[in-house]
Structures are given as C-alpha cells and as structure tokens.
Amino acid sequence: MSEDAGVRAGFELDAGALEAWMQARMKVPPGPLTISQFSGGQSNPTYGVTVGGLSLVLRRKPPGPLLKGAHDVLREARVMGALGEAGFPVPRILGVCEDPEVIGTAFYLMAHVEGRIVWDPATDIADPGERAATFDAMNATLARLHSLDIDALGLSDYGRRGGFVQRQTALWTRQYREDVDAGRDQHMDRLADWLGERDLPDETSVIHGDFRIDNLILHPGRPEVAAVIDWELSTLGHPLADFAYHLMMYRMPAHLGGLAGRDLQALGIPAEADYVAAYAERTGRSALPDLDVFVAFNMFRFAAIIHGIRGRVIRGNAVSPKARKRADEFPELARLAWEQAVKAGAR
User: Fold this and answer.
1) Nearest CA to 280 among 143, 138, 145, 149?
2) Which of 81, 145, 86, 153 has its CA nearest to residue 110?
3) Are 239 and 146 in contact (CB under 8 A)?
4) Does position 40 have pLDDT exceeding 70, yes or no?
5) What is the CATH number of the domain that holds 103?
6) What's 192's domain CATH number?
7) Mind listing the pLDDT tens digit for each residue in 119-157?
8) What integer pLDDT is reported at residue 2 of this predicted model?
9) Are the C-beta atoms of residues 188 and 231 closer than 8 Å to each other?
C-alpha cells in the first residue's frame, strides 16, 4: 500500500473529534494531528495518523449502509489484540472505539509498523536467497498461527468449531446456483457435487482467511515477517483449508497472479513439495493426504466469488474495468478448480 497525500472524497474524518477522543482515551502527546489515506484494495478504509511525532494507523468501517456483519473492524481489533498478547507478529492495538458518533463509524487505532509490502516476490524481491528466506518466514508464520491454542488466546467464541469446509461449500454452492444471470459451468457443477460428498478429518484453529504475501509487512532490511495484516476474513476454521488457500499461489498461472510456469529454482522460491513438507513438519504432521481436496475447495470458493462478480457485471451494477476483467476469468478459474479435484481423485 502507499499513503496518499490526502483523503479521498467521501472518506473524510473529523480530525477534531478524533483528536479529542485520542487525547481522552490514549494520552497521546500534544501536537498537530494530520490524516492521510492509504491506497490499496482493502475493503475497510485505512488511514495514516500522526500526532506529536507519533505515527499510527486507523482502520474503520466504510461509510454508508452495510450488510449485517460485514466490515467488522472491531472483530479485526479483537483477534489482533489476542494474537499480539501471545507474541504473534501483528500491529499493536492502541485504541478501539465502538461509538459511531465520533467519526461516523466504529474504528480502531494500531501502531504503525515500518516495513515493506511485496506484491510479486519474483519482481519485488531482487535476490534469490532473500526470496527463499522470505518464503520460509511466511511458512513459519502461518504454521505458528495454526499451532496457537484457541482457548488460551481467549478466542473460543471467535467462530464455530468443526464443519468449516462443509459449511463453506454449502454456502458458495448456494450462491453459485442462485445467481442465474451469471450462468452455469460444467466444472463448477461437478465440483460442487463432488465437494459436497467429501468427508474430511476435522480440526479447528484460528485462520487468517486471506494469507498472502501482500497481506504481510516484511522487515525493512531482513526477510522476516514484521506483521500480518488484513484480518477481516479471520475466524475459527480448518487450518489446512487456510494453508491450501495460501498454497494456491503455486497452482495459479502467472497471469492470474500465481507462480505456475515460473522457474522457481532460478528465482530461489522453494518447490511446492518442499514448501508443503516444511509446513507439515512445523505443525507436527507426517503428511497432508487431503491437500488437493482443500486446494480444490479454495479454488471453488474463489471461482464462486468471481461468478458473483460476473453476475453483477451482466446486471450492470459492477462496471469497473477490473470487475469486467475478473468476470472474464471465471471459466478459466472454474476449469483450474476442477483440475485440482481431479488430482484428488475426482472423475
């Protein structure tokens, strides 16, 4: 993300009200308060706030009407607060405001973490040795998250235990089949039926839900994870579903943002098998026998989301060039998703 010079129209904050709240709740040093807005694809607006030489980050709900349960920034603050107490690398939560009267929506403030955001490791990291170390750090960070004790974190009620893949499969199957405008796809139809019949060994951990390299802040000078950000999709769920979502980078072609087809050895990026083995060892597993099923599940869910975008484009209420490009990718994503199921034994 980059920080814009100002704040975009419609996303302004009442600087006076914010400063008064901060002075009363956080005892920040006196001095002029400045606000700027970060650019990027996150759905919850994010701002840089400086006051008295102190640098903070503010994250809030978007203004305007919202679907029930959507954009729950207080939930983000809760999970990051709990993880931070356990020593997991997240930004430190400094203040939480549930009162929408202060700036128009609920918000929280966290410490600014200095570091780097990497979008494409093949181009944004110059040295192969640094790439290898960065991938190892990503792997270790996700394995550590999945090894934390839910009850010790105080997150036993952060989601439902068990049945995560089954519930999600049912949800996205329904969403896909109900959007008649976007049409049907033979690969999605077969995959929905196949996933619905799978009986997977169940387990539960805290999951991030969107663990990608661009949702990490890397240390400014070392291949280390300084902080994991964007916890909007976090919940209690199956750790292997979370890992398989992360692993999709190996199965997606370059034009869809993945690593498939690239010379991983020359880039210094570990082969998928080695990356999987490292995660398995770190989480105390001898093997991950159902991994292709979990990858197929994640690609099905991703394709179903894009199918929804396709429907909105067809109905004329999603007209941005980015939405149209995504909609055009749906058939390829559906095919890729079915290919993962075939690897897992689907016929």
Assistant:
1) 143
2) 81
3) yes
4) no
5) 3.30.200.20
6) 3.90.1200.10
7) 999 899 999 999 999 999 999 999 999 999 999 999 999
8) 46
9) no
Pick the last residue of a domain from 111, 129, 144. Answer: 111
pLDDT score at 66: 44
* Partner residues linked to 51 by β-bridges: 33, 54
Read off the pLDDT of residues 64-112 as tens digits, 9 standing for 90 and up. Answer: 544 444 458 999 999 999 999 999 999 999 999 999 999 999 999 999 9
Query: Is the CB of residue 208 less than 8 Å from the CB of residue 236?
Result: no
Cα distance between residue 261 and residue 254, in whole Å: 7
Do 154 and 297 belong to one domain? Answer: yes
Does residue 305 sit within a domain? yes
In whole angstroms, what is the distance from residue 73 CA to residue 15 CA? 20
Which residue range forms the structural domain that includes residue 98? 15-111
Query: Do residues 163 and 21 both lie within one domain?
Result: no
Residue 91 CA to residue 88 CA, distance in Å, equals 9
Query: CA dist 80 to 87, 232, 319, Å?
Result: 10, 10, 35
Q: Are 110 and 80 within 8 A, CB to CB?
A: yes
- Which of 111, 129, 153 is the endpoint of a domain? 111
Number of domains in the chain: 2
Does residue 9 lie in a domain region? no
